[in-house]
């Protein structure tokens, strides 16, 4: 037990704390954007994110993985918020967590080993493309200073680690360039332009909805969808982190941990969440390898909101966009192009279907499920697949 605590919490603490700080800075604009998608106040997404990040640091099965309010969940709940209000969202998030805990005890995490490598390749590449595409709105169509800050950020994040690694390059870029922006009065869009940030902690609450069968029938379809989509993304992200760190994780513990985190999110006025692969990759690239990095991300996110709100709203979006562009390029599997030249047609079809469906639907779970089904169909009919 002592060795496990040392490995999962105390290994290289300075690097993990700094990595968590970098991630917390990158989380804010993403989470605010997801809140807008869900039709809720930005603070709903921010509250959810630091509750989930802190909780999963203790309850999750994959150290160094970052979980927070996620875009895939936000897309699912917009109709619920529009038709019934935000309290039904909180109730649905609670039920989502309960469903995930049940699935964890049913050991659905074991299903991850049946996801084909070709689907994983398509999943990762599609995700990298989505991350890159999501940042374009923060880069193009703005002032020349926006282009300059983006370019300088990319240069710092790419080149600085070659000569200096004690402090993560993304953190240096954010602090240094934000100060320059404030001193020069640069004409750039900032985090504050995305939505108002309230300097307050979340309060414990019971969703203000009737506790009856009718309410259950309203929220159940949303809760099931959120639970499944959230677990697919979380377990796929866990697998990617496993491969990056060359270590195994407990997928069933992660499943239950996600459920606990979402229950607490619902009880503190938050939206549902799951693992975020972009931020998880950023955490790894910044030196995060333990649970301490996840805890640091959640705690510093709370600190930024409550204590450093005035500085937070001054951070140029172009800096954060530049960081995420680097993350996107480092996430994309460029070996896919070489693989396409020599791989069987069936494998190519699975990769392309996964990528295309994810890009069309912006739903990673849809692409993964469809790609896995196609893989099974083509493997059962190899002659037909090769003939095509």
TrEMBL record:
Residues 15-354 form the SLC26A/SulP transporter domain. This is SulP family inorganic anion transporter. It is a multi-pass membrane protein. Signal peptide: none annotated. GO terms for cellular component: membrane. Its main location: membrane. It holds the Pfam family Sulfate_transp. InterPro entries: Membrane-Transporter-like, S04_transporter_CS, SLC26A/SulP_dom. It is found in: Membrane.
């Amino acid at each position: 037990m002592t060795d496990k605590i040392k490995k999962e919490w105390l290994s290289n603490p300075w690097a993990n704390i700094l990595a968590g700080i970098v991630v917390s800075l990158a989380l804010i604009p993403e989470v605010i954007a997801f809140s807008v998608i869900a039709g809720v106040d930005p603070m709903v997404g921010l509250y959810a994110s630091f509750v989930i990040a802190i909780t999963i640091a203790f309850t999750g099965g994959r150290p160094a993985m970052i979980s927070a309010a996620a875009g895939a969940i936000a897309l699912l709940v917009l109709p619920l918020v529009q038709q019934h209000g935000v309290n039904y969202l909180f109730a649905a998030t609670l039920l989502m967590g309960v469903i995930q805990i049940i699935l964890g005890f049913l050991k659905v995490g074991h299903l991850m080993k049946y996801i084909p490598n070709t689907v994983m390749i398509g999943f990762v590449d599609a995700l990298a493309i989505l991350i890159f595409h999501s940042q374009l709105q923060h880069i193009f169509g703005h002032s020349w200073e926006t282009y300059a800050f983006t370019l300088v950020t990319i240069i710092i994040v790419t080149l600085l680690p070659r000569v200096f690694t004690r402090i993560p390059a993304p953190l240096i870029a954010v602090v240094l360039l934000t100060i320059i922006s404030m001193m020069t009065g640069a004409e750039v869009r900032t985090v504050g332009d995305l939505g108002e940030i309230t300097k307050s902690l979340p309060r414990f609450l019971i969703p203000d909805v009737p506790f009856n069968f009718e309410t259950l029938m309203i929220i159940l379809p949303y809760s099931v969808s959120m639970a499944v989509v959230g677990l697919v993304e979380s377990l796929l992200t866990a697998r990617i982190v496993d491969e990056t760190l060359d270590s195994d994780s407990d997928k069933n513990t992660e499943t239950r941990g996600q459920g606990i985190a979402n229950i607490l999110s619902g009880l503190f006025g938050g939206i549902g969440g799951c693992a975020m692969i972009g931020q998880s990759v950023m955490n790894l690239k910044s030196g995060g390898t333990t649970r301490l990095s996840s805890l640091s991300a959640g705690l510093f996110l709370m600190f930024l909101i409550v204590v450093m709100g005035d500085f937070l709203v001054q951070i140029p979006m172009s800096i954060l966009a530049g960081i995420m562009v680097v993350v996107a390029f480092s996430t994309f599997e460029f070996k896919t192009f070489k693989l396409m030249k020599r791989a069987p047609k069936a494998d190519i079809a699975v990769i392309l279907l996964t990528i295309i469906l994810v890009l069309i639907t912006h739903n990673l779970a849809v692409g993964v499920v469809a790609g896995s089904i196609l893989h099974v169909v083509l493997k059962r009919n190899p002659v037909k697949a090769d003939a095509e």
